[in-house]
Amino acid sequence: MPALALLTFILFDALIKSTGINIDEMIADEMNSLKKTLGEDVTEDVARQELVARGCELMLTDANSINKLAKRDKGLFGKIKAKIDECVKNIIKACNSIINKDGSIKSGTVSKEAMLLKNFALQMRTMWNEALKEAGESNSIQNTSEQSQAYSEKKTQYAER
């Protein structure tokens, strides 16, 4: 199955399980909702695209959906995980730039939001790493990305000194 079709299938499956509504009803509801918002009719394809976007959001934070993707398509999973790892690394780098070595927040910065963002990023990375382990792939994809992350985080810490 092509990657986009598989991803769409997994996303729709996650949406169905989270809402209890079948996909045809969701598409019809989305078409009606978009018509109210936009003031004009939209195609079924546009409604599907909106649902795919919503499903992507769900999949990034739903452990069951992540596990299912890891088991069904390790290649696609690895690509998405690599992007998530990169995003998490950038978030941590940004947070580290406003956090002192003792964990306190540098004056003049937004503290609570930065810590929440950093914690969310770490939780997301953990879910994706756990899914990789459950899929039986605790090999090169995870080890390489974790080693790279550890190196980048240490490099960032040394640069701040």
Protein architecture, described:
The structure is a single chain. The protein is mainly alpha-helical and 161 residues long. 80% of the residues lie in helices and 0% in strands. It has seven helices and no strands. The protein has helices spanning 3-19, 23-38, 44-61, 63-72, 74-96, 111-134, 140-160. Mean pLDDT is 76; it is low at 138-148 and 154-161.
Main sheet: strands, sense, barrel: none
- Quaternary: single chain
Output mean pLDDT: 76
Euclidean distance between termini CA atoms: 50 Å
By helix and strand content, what is the structural category?
mainly alpha
Instruction: Let me know the number of strands.
Output: 0
SS element count, helices: 7
Could you name the ranges where pLDDT drops below 50 across 5 or more consecutive residues?
A: 138-148, 154-161
Strand content: under 5%
Order of helices and strands: HHHHHHH
- Give the % helix: over 70%
Taken from the alpha-carbon principal axes, the silhouette is: globular
